[in-house]
Amino acid sequence: MAAIPSPVVAVKINEWYKHIKRFNVKEAEILREEVRKEIDAMEEDEQAVLYFQLMEFRHQLMLDYVQPSKKPLEPSEYLKAVEGQGKKMSGFLEYYFNFFQGMYEFRMGEFVKAIMFYRRAEKRLEQVADELEKAEFYYKMSEVFYHMKQTHMSMYYVTLAYDTYKAYKTHSIYMVREINCLTVVAGNYMDLETRDKALTCFSLALEKAEALGNKHIIFRQLYNIGICYQGLNQITKAVSYFHQSILEGEPIGEKLFQVYYELIRIHLNQKELIEGREFYEKAKEQLALHKDDLFLDMLKVLENLFFKSANLSEVLACLDKLESPRGLPYMEDLALEAARFYTEKGRVDESVKMYEKMIYAQKQIQRGDCLYEFL
Description:
Aspartate phosphatase, TPR-like_helical_dom_sf, TPR_rpt, mainly alpha, 18 helices
């Protein structure tokens, strides 16, 4: 039996990748099995084998996103064969290696490492001919820079992605990407304290999500609009949108603890302790089902402030647990919350300590700039 030509297998891997990006799990699984069989019968081609190994890793990233596993995804299981055998990768494969590794680091909350790998991938981006593939890269860059509070960098990359996705909006998957871009733009506007512009973007994203009938995105955009109104100090509207998001998200099994967390803060700040406690208990129930150590630590800050004696050392200990790339923005936010709490109680020394903690968190976020690769 003649060996299968490697370009034939490469084309099938490309098709497999299209389904991975669209989260078409069933179709991706079918193509994965077909490619596995064809790789065994393929003519010798080192680059095609490396491409297959990289796609195995990307496939697992998709599965881990759709159905998160309790066991952390180990990239070594999929990438060791690629980077550990001393094989020379083509520029095209170098791009995918670094791009996928960056996605993995982002998924793990290692944002600086993610940027490092994305930067390496960017040096090989000219090897990618597909404009939609480039848009995918630009979107991922905008996403990680948004999380690192590098607002202007995020805006630069998200604009590049958005312009491409708009041109392909006839396909539903690219309209979803368009919505994702609008969400990043809105988040950046929030960081720039231009919440009126953010509200416009979130509202447009909600409109597009409703046109698609995508309930998961509708839930997320209702929550985002609630956050926006909360920042504009239009609390009644914020609460209304948070409750709408709960009504939308509950039947489809969405994780609601973020919504509950915001409602806890609103009610406690309005001295509505009964309502605050009610949503606190709901958040704890959610976190028992969907374990998230970061949000548990955030709840403990609120618990120590509002339901206990607000002991400074205990509150600081809870805040210290938030010191991670993912947790630092919440540390900044909750330190400010605590500072205002202590000020209102006339506990000036504790308030000063909390403002110092807030400034510390801001500096740690900014330090991310100094950790990027230069060469």
